[in-house]
Design a protein that fits this description.
The complex is a heterodimer of chains A (about 700) and B (about 200). Chain A is mainly beta and about 700 residues long. In chain A, about 10% of the residues lie in helices and about 50% in strands. The N terminus of chain A is likely disordered. Chain B has 2 domains: about 30 residues, no CATH class; about 150 residues, Rossmann fold (3-Layer(aba) Sandwich). The N terminus of chain B is likely disordered. The chains are: A mainly beta (about 700), B alpha/beta (about 200).
Chain lengths: ~700, ~200
Amino acid sequence: MRAQPPIRHGGPVEALAQAAGIFAVDAALRSGKGTLSRIRKSGQRFTPQRNSRHAWASTVAFVALGLVMFASDAIAQPQESLPPPGVMKKLSLDELMDIDVTSVSKRSEKLSETASAIQVITQEDMRRSGASSIPEALRLASNLEVAQVDSHQWAISARGFNSTSANKLQVLIDGRTVYTPLFSGVFWDVQDTLLEDVDRIEVISGPGATLWGANAVNGVVNIITKSAKDTQGLLVLGGGGTELRGFGGARYGGTLSSNLHYRVYGKYFDRDSTVLPSGRDATDDWHMGQGGFRLDWDGSEANLLTLQGDIYDGRIAQLGANDDSVVSGGNVIGRWSHTFSEESDFKLQLYYDRTHRNIPGTFSEDLDTYDLDFDHRFPLGERNAIVWGLGYRRMDDDVGNSPVLAFLPRRLSRELFSGFVQDEIALVKDRLHLTVGTKIEHNDYTGFEFQPSGRLAWLITPRQTAWTAVSRAVRTPSRIDNDLFAPANPPFTLVQGGANFVSEELLSYELGYRIQPHRQLSLSLAAYYNDYDNLRSVEQVNPPAPFPVVIANGQEGESYGAELTAEYHVTDWWRLRVGYTELRIHVRPKSGSTDTSKGSGESHDPNHQVGLRSSWDLPWHLECGVGFRYVSQIANQRVPAYQELDARLAWRPTPKLEFSIIGQNLLHDHHPEFGALTSRHEIERGVYGKVTWRF
Amino acid sequence: MALLVSTRHWRNGGPSDLPGVLFAALALLLVGGLNLPAQPVATKEYKIKAVFLFNFSQFVTWPTNAFPETQTPLVIGVLGEDPFGTYLDETVRGEEVDKHPLVIQHYRRAEEIKTCHILFISQSETSRLDQILPSLKGRSILTVSDAEGFAQQGGMIRFVTEKGRIRLRINPEAAKAASLTISSKLLRPAEIVAPGKD
């Protein structure tokens, strides 16, 4: 046997394990059975094709589960996002009179009354954090786990089960589900927009499946951009630095007639590579351009028509490969909202989304998603508020396989039908609200799935809410669970698909409490116990031979934990925010399973996370902010605990002009956040400057 | 149910599983939090109204006797339930008009109003407007409200929300009667009304 090349970045073994989120290889390694040599003997000749894990662990993202528009109204309630008084005071009377206040009061009250663990990241929060991408902005939500894997990949989840192909978080951008049926997860590198045009990001930890559908198992991230009316005028920004080497963007919003507003935008960025643990350059630098538009027509008081779309194209360098990965795609959304009254409206939404990802020599995917959603909200009698909806989605997936692994069949079309109904019952008006509902979905793998939930909110006082919830959610099968084979041709000596894979199931019990004990202080606590069944496992076909394996549902487990957040407005110029989360996960094989990983392929999570943010308005139009985070070790990847610090200093000589300098990950030259040592990239300290100019 | 299940598991997991700090925090919330005074956070609508109130201090001229001394603060009073949270305080903090520092005061009843220059009358007082407004007669107080029928009953500036935007209805006659001069800069974007109309 020839000497084994170092397995760093290595090779298909990693690719296989990571890609699939299966850890057969990892587990076997640790059990001392020498899987690596077995694999090598199995006849495959593995060239050390670096970064083939990218093959997998990334791809174009997309789209699809979209039921949701109502979500932003029905559950996830926005916070008021107005600039601080210092800025508002400088507005003219005319400008003050031009601010739309309709979205307001009821919703902000409801945020504090919602019977789920919701956090809202506002535009102001994002601006003050210096976040340069959506994943970076998500670090502001303390109820998420956010780990940067390399220059473009992120592992993001809520309440555990994190991985580069995390599959229990539902993510939407303006009602479009950015989800790949390949592994039920998100390719974060292609989820972008002009961050200045984002109105808010609502982050819910805990199941949201009754409204959002399958995949909203452990959480929901709902990214909502501003209306065209609220993004009028010219915005130009640009800058550059060490990690975020260069970026620029522009948006113009105009009015075609008094009822017809539009905006167009374009942006570009160029990001530097991460490094290997040795400090050597990991050659994964990348750049991407994106453009888009939005058109809003409020034809009458009752009707709002929206047409919006994006298009993007990016190149990602691959360690050890000459050819860059290519990511590209686009989407277009049409939406009609009709308002009958304050309590009653409907929305009809149609979208098309296309993604393309090509990792030369390893993997490619083209995915087309067509989605139609309808939802309707109305009151029933004095006490009932009903929401119901219907949805249809079709996904046409076409992958390009390599000799190493394959999705079979190569081309696959999948259809999803869904419906939901939910009733919010005022048991005692403005005091005790019960929300019951269920989602019913039909998918091509497992047929009908029911995802009911019951939520009870007790508004103890106007400043104090206690809530509890019981929900069932499922993670329906994706292509990786069913169609993954390795090597690509029979007799598939490593992985033989998962023809019998069924949905992973969750029963979740939640308890929460929010209080605003003082007008400057608000506190929120959520605790949960999650009971999982039919978790993904890798089963030996001919035990005790570790390979081949099939993918099955041989694991079960539970998790529990708590999320505490506090926001303290010390003065009008000093704000503090603290987030603390605790999490424990126990996964074990069910009887008859040969999987001994104890979940180490499915979940890579820190037990504790602490985040602290402070922002100050200083004299001379200066703003300063720091964000500190502590993340405990990820035991099953042996990623050590780390602490990091971000900081931002900005000067806004006028409300229209802003100069800022942002430091990210300042405490270390480079530090790891995620990934097994053999494939790990580390994140370097970065500093960049930025100018934003609004006309 | 949820609590029972969770508790059982925490116990099984042993005390190290959930640190004491969490329980301490919980205890603090449950015990310590409840008795503290609570105030609402202002909605967007009221934040903007707060900024308007601040603006009024810049666009209205009071008679000299309204400020007995040069250091006398310019008082913005809120009568009834305060819808502004901390926002009004934050807006006026550190501000002054002709060396008169701006100060916020809260009143539960009209009788408590002593020195006051701008009075915002909360919607909670709508039913008592017919007593409140006459009781202020002859005093140089700019009365502001978003209550129904405010101008009709002799109020000076009413906030009206139309198509999601805040509009001003100003009754200059009522202001004049109180020896207040409203700048044309404020009158221009406003709708001018005479008493009796609202």
